[in-house]
């Protein structure tokens, strides 16, 4: 049971970090696209509007994109059901990226006001704690993978990806991850 629980927590941590990693990698290309679209006037108007609102109406405005873009995910599921996997995946990712981009902008615009709501501040602090916890959960696994790559002479990044996967597989087969 203990191994199952550890695997479950590790999978949860990997999922949490995977979403964070994905968003961090998408931020530069999204910023590049947004910088090319002439939205500065709209951004300033939204920021000015948000500045005039008290905290709870700001929270409602902050939650609108989360709710409003959910039908895009339903469209993606419908496309999946029709067997249009590529279009469904593109719709899902585009909807999620758009939602995250808008929410990120709104949070950055009204962070102080949102954090003045006590339960929101606690939720935000918990999220930051969960992020650090996930990194701590995955750290032993990352160290073991680095050890396997170092042992195979491929830690410097010059080896092909497939050779790295094989090296990690061999290391795991010899019991290299049991201590992680």
User: How would you classify the helix and strand content by structural class?
Assistant: mainly alpha
Rg on CA atoms, Å: 21 Å
Low-confidence stretches: none
- How many DSSP helices? 7
What characteristic shape results from the CA principal axes?
globular
Head-to-tail CA distance between termini: 17 Å
The counted number of beta strands is: 0
- The helix/strand series, from N terminus to C terminus, equals HHHHHHH
**Range of strand content:** under 5%
Q: What's the main sheet like?
A: none
Average predicted confidence as pLDDT: 80
Give the proportion of residues in helices. Answer: over 70%
Would you give an account of this structure?
It is a single chain. With 180 residues, this protein is mainly α. The protein is built from seven helices and no strands. Helix 3 (55-68) packs antiparallel against helix 5 and helix 6 crosses helix 7 (161-173). The longest helix has 35 residues, at 2-36. The radius of gyration is 21 Å and the shape is globular. The protein starts with a helix and ends in a 7-residue tail after the last helix. 8% of the residues are buried.
């Amino acid at each position: 049971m203990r191994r199952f629980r550890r695997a479950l927590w590790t999978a949860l941590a990997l999922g949490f970090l995977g979403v964070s990693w994905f968003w961090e990698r998408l931020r530069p290309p999204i910023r590049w696209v947004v910088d090319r679209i002439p939205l500065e006037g709209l951004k300033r108007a939204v920021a000015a509007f948000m500045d005039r609102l008290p905290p709870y109406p700001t929270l409602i405005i902050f939650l609108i994109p989360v709710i409003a873009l959910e039908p895009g995910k339903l469209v993606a599921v419908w496309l999946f059901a029709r067997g249009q996997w590529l279009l469904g995946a593109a719709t899902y990712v585009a909807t999620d990226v758009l939602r995250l981009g808008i929410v990120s902008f709104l949070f950055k615009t009204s962070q102080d006001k949102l954090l003045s709501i006590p339960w929101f501040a606690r939720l935000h602090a918990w999220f930051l704690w969960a992020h650090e916890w996930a990194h701590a959960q995955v750290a032993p696994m990352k160290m073991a993978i680095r050890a396997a790559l170092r042992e195979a002479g491929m830690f410097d990044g010059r080896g092909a990806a497939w050779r790295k996967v094989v090296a990690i597989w061999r290391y795991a087969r010899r019991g290299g991850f049991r201590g992680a």
